[in-house]
Structures are given as C-alpha cells and as structure tokens.
Amino acid sequence: MNLSFKSTTAMALALGLLAGPGFAGTEEATEFLDSEIEGLSSLSRADQEAEMQWFIDAAAPFAGMEIKVVSETITTHEYESQVLAPAFEAITGIKVTHDLIGEGDVVEKLQTQMQTGENVYDGYINDSDLIGTHWRYGQARNLTDWMAGEGADVTNPGLDLDDFVGLSFTTGPDGKVYQLPDQQFANLYWFRYDWFTDEKTMADFEAAYGYGLGVPVNWSAYEDIAEFFTGRDMSYMGGPADGVFGSMDYGKKDPSLGWRYTDAWMSMAGMGDVGEPNGLPVDEWGIRVNENSQPVGSCVARGGATNGPAAVYAVTKAIEWLEKYTPPAAAGMTFSESGPIPAQGAIAQQMFWYTAFTADMVGDGADAVLYDDGSPRWRMAPSPHGAYWVEGTKIGYQDAGSWTLMESTPVDRAKAAWLYAQFVTSKTVDVKKAHVGLTFIRESTIQHDSFTERAPLLGGLVEFYRSPARVQWSPTGTNVPDYPKLAQLWWQNIGDAMSGAKSPQEALDGLCGDQEKVLERLERAGVQGDLGPVMNDPQDPEYWLSQPGSPKAKLDNEDPEPVTVSYDELIASWQ
User: Fold this and answer.
1) Please, which contacts does 427-431 make with residues 24 or more away whose CB atoms are closer than 8 Å?
2) Is 305 left (phi over 0), alpha (psi -120 to 50) or beta?
3) What is the pLDDT of residue 575?
4) Do the beta carbons of residue 83 and residue 6 sit within 8 Å?
C-alpha cells in the first residue's frame, strides 16, 4: 500500500493549505493520481483527471465541512479510511472521519439512528442484507430518486450504475436503488488443488470410494472427501504427517454463528425456492412472502421453511461434519477465528469460505499453502449443494457492503457523504482499491488487464467473478423485513443445536417461532405500512409440504450418489 500521498496530505493540512473558500485541489488530485493510483484505473489518465475535476467542482460548496461515516473493519475499508479519506479531503476540502468498527456495531448504530432520528453518522457502509429493512421502513434515502432530485447536483455523471455488478442486491421490489455497493465478497468452496490433483492421492481416493477425486458437486461427495482426508498422512506431498482434517468450520454460540446459516447454508442445502437473486416465494431464511412481497410466515405451518425437513438436514449435516472432520478447536471458534486456519496447511477443503480471506491466503504467514513463487496450492470453486437443492435455487452467499444515506441526515451532510461514497467507488479509484482488498464491485474492474495478469495468483477468484456463475451468489433478499431484529435469533437458537442442548428440529422450531413473533409484532404495529407482514393462519404442516416448491417434504434418501467434477474442466466451461 502506497502511503506517500497520505503523508503529503498530512503535511499540507498541518500548514493549513487545503481548506477554506475557493479551494481548488488540482495539484492534490494530480499528486493522488501519480502516487496512489499509478495507472491502476479503468479510465484513461485524461478521464481520471476529468473525474477528479468534477469532484473538486461539486464539492466546492462543502469545503471545510467535517463529516463522519462508518463501516465494518475489513481490508477494503481500512484502505478507504487510511488512504482514500485523506486523499478526498486534500482534493475536495471535505474532512471525512471514516470509523472502522465491528459489523454488529454498524447495525447497532444504524438502529439507533432509525429509532431516535438522531444523526449518528452521515453515511453508512452496511450490508445489503438490510435491503428489505430499508425498503419497508422508508428511513433510508431512495437513491434512485435522490440522484434525480435533491442529490442531482452532487451525483457524478460518470458514476455508471450499470457497471456495478451487485446492483440487483440493493434494489427493492419497487425497482428503486436503496444502497450503492462499495465492496463484495462471496462464500465459496476452498480446496487444496495440489492434493486433489496428485496422482497417488487421486488413485487412493478412487480405490476407496469408486469415483474420481475432484471438486464436489453435491454434499455426498463433500462428505466422502472430508472422511478421506481426515487423519491422512500427507507427508509424501510435503504436508503434515498427522493432524490433517477434511473440513473446516466454526461452531461457537456467537453472533457470527448466525451468519453461518443466514449466509446461504440453508439455500445450499436446498431449503428455499427457485429464484435469483433470492428464492420466491420462500427465501433462504425460510420466510414466505405473498404476491405483494409481504411476509406471511416462517414455520412450515404458515408456509415457511425455517423448521422444515431441508433445514433440519442442513443443520444436522453441519453438526456432524464439525464433530467428525474439523480440528477439535473449531467447535469453539467464531467466524474470524476460523478464517485463517486453512492457510496453516492442514485443511483439505472448506465448503463455507469467504473470498474476503483471499488477501490473507496469498500474503505473509500463508507459506504452507503457497509455492515458492507465491502462486497458490489452493483454489476456490462453486460450493456443492445439498440433497434438497434443485437447479435455479440460490447456491451461495455474496456480501455486499453498500453505502446507505439515512433520511434523518441533514441534506448538506448527506450530499457531502454521497460525494465521498462516489469517490471511493469511482472508476478512477476502484481498480486500485480492488487490488488492495480483492472485493470486486465493478465489471470494468473485473475485466481490467491487471487482473488478467494477477489471476494466476488468486486461486480462481478472478475466474469466478468473470463467470456466469457469480449471479447465483447473492446477499439476503427483500423477504426479510427487519434484519437487525431477526438476525440475532439465528445464532441464539441454532447455537443450542450446535452445543447439543437441543436437537436440530427443536432448535429450528424455536427459531421459526421466534421469527414469527417478530413478524406478528411488526404486523400489529403497522410500522411498515402496506409492505409489512400479513401473517397466514397456521395449518397442518402436511398441507404445505404437499404443495410444489418450498417447504419441501422429507426425502427418502438424503444421501444421493456423490458427484465430482474436474476443476480445470469447470474453469474451462466458464471461459
């Protein structure tokens, strides 16, 4: 990361050179393009300069203003806070304090602003998982109308919304955009490509299981591969002689345990309905909506699927694999604690692996999974699906941290925050930012020649984002009417199943019941108007289980014939 511009900016600020009426930041913009961007942009140098001049001119009325924005702490946002915010200040004269806090804390601050009307932050980068919340409550600025109306004078003519690959994730059922993507990362399958393509390893696996070792297409194959590698002596390949495990996961009763399930584990199992970006009428949370997108139930008795056979199967498999095929410490780990473990070199595969860990997997401390030239011994691929999955059902999760402007933020402060949001997502900046954080938001960035060159070092990340497969990975959709209230119920209830305090069925019965209590409270309060829940009357669950789609009746065979595919053939099919 080049910090030379940051230090230059700090010196100029100390001398009082960068603020005040009539500030024009042309020299500062030139310095930024020379020392920080260094040609890593999808725009020509002339177009970069033109875009920077637009920011200088549009920001002139706000020079000297101080604003506060907030995001979770990941590499991409650290870069924004430490490098791009000072650059923006130097170029525009608007001082930005970009706070970095935990993801749960971001949601808490957002809730506080929604409940009190107090302007806690001028801009939020919060997950598009809250799209259903923002659309229904009407407390987030509708960006489509904002850009055409009140915010038109501060909307970059080169913003190019069509270039954002995740815009469908931040669009409500009304066709309006409520959030602007800032970073995206997917939940994919991760595996040791060097182990999987070794002749001895492949021969041993085929002798034991009767089919070829490869990327698992379904959970049956994943389970066989997990069993095969757990306890295997991999010293003949330079790996550990003992302590090898066939899977990695986490199971601590902690808020991050909820993400493990709401972030598409249930849809991977096949719980929800067909649909992109999310299943309709039943989504990956098991919540059913009516034709007006109003939630009508979560339990099977009301047409939901949160406690149905597919959900029970999903949780049962997760617990079984955690106990049998992961390191003993994994059951007591959180999301962040478990993330770096595969880089230590003793894990064969992981079904639930976030590409946000890519930077760590190719950096210092990852020698065990890198060749001497820095190229990866591992790859990433589409996640395998469970027994209840059918073609067209969501198969994975994609995080989309997105800029959100609240209605309670004063207009001038919202305009200044919107300028900063557009700056850090601009075509001038985005290629360089993507190289730092590896969280792609723009098609022009994904297709940039610099990523064609870097792709061999990133284990399939670039190939995935250039492939048609990426559209099946999506964040939480609009069926969830109040993400903050509902999300916390998942880790609390499923944690009881993970710890053994309850059976999976008992835990999921509790979860769907708790979700319906929240939906019923929202219905009674009427706070979401015509968009809020209108709950179905409970019926015999067999009524719903006998209907087409989700909720799905229990399968006679939840362990179908295993299927694998050659990774190289898979990549070739994408290209």
Assistant:
1) 427/41, 427/42, 427/43, 427/47, 427/51, 427/158, 427/160, 427/163, 428/33, 428/37, 428/41, 428/43, 428/47, 428/48, 428/51, 428/52, 429/37, 429/41, 429/84, 430/41, 430/42, 431/40, 431/41, 431/42
2) alpha
3) 64
4) yes
* H-helix segments, 263-403: 265-269, 309-325, 335-338, 358-361
Residue 2 neighbours by CB distance under 10 Å: 12
Q: In whole angstroms, what is the distance from residue 463 CA to residue 573 CA?
A: 11
DSSP state at residue 537: P
Every domain of the chain and the residues it spans:
4-178+398-469, 186-246+336-397
Q: Tell me what the pLDDT averaged over the chain comes to.
A: 93
Largest CA distance in the chain: 77
Nearest to 564 by CA among 223, 213, 321: 213
Omega of the bond prior to 281 within 30 degrees of 0, cis? yes
Average pLDDT over residues 5-15: 38
What average pLDDT does this structure show over 170-190? 95
Question: Quick one: which H or E segment has residue 521?
Answer: helix 504-525
List, for residues 427-459, the tens digit of each pLDDT value.
Answer: 999 999 999 999 999 999 999 999 999 999 999
- Per residue in 230-244, pLDDT (tens digit) is 999 999 999 999 999
Place of tokens 């993970």: 498
Prediction pTM value = 0.90
Q: Is cis: bond before 240, omega within 30 of 0?
A: no
For the stretch 39-61, what's the b/e string if a residue is b when 16 or more beta carbons lie within 10 angstroms of its beta carbon? ebbbbeeeebbebbebbbebbbe
Distance, in Å, from the CA atom of 255 to the CA atom of 263, rounded to the nearest integer, reads: 12
Cis ω for the linkage preceding 538 (within 30 of 0): no
Task: Let me know: does 225 contact 216? Beta carbons within 8 Å.
Answer: yes
Q: What is the pLDDT of residue 98?
A: 98
Phi, psi of 100 (to 5 degrees): -115, 115
Is residue 20's pLDDT more than 60?
no
CATH pick for 4-178+398-469 out of 3.30.930.10, 3.40.190.10, 2.60.40.10, 1.10.10.60: 3.40.190.10
Tell the residue number behind the tokens 């509708």, with chain if given. Answer: 142
Query: Looking at per-residue confidence, does 276 or 197 come out higher?
Result: 197
307: CB partners within 8 A, 6+ apart? 286, 298, 299, 300, 505, 508, 509, 511, 512
What pLDDT is attached to residue 327?
97
pLDDT of 478-489, one tens digit each?
Answer: 999 999 999 999
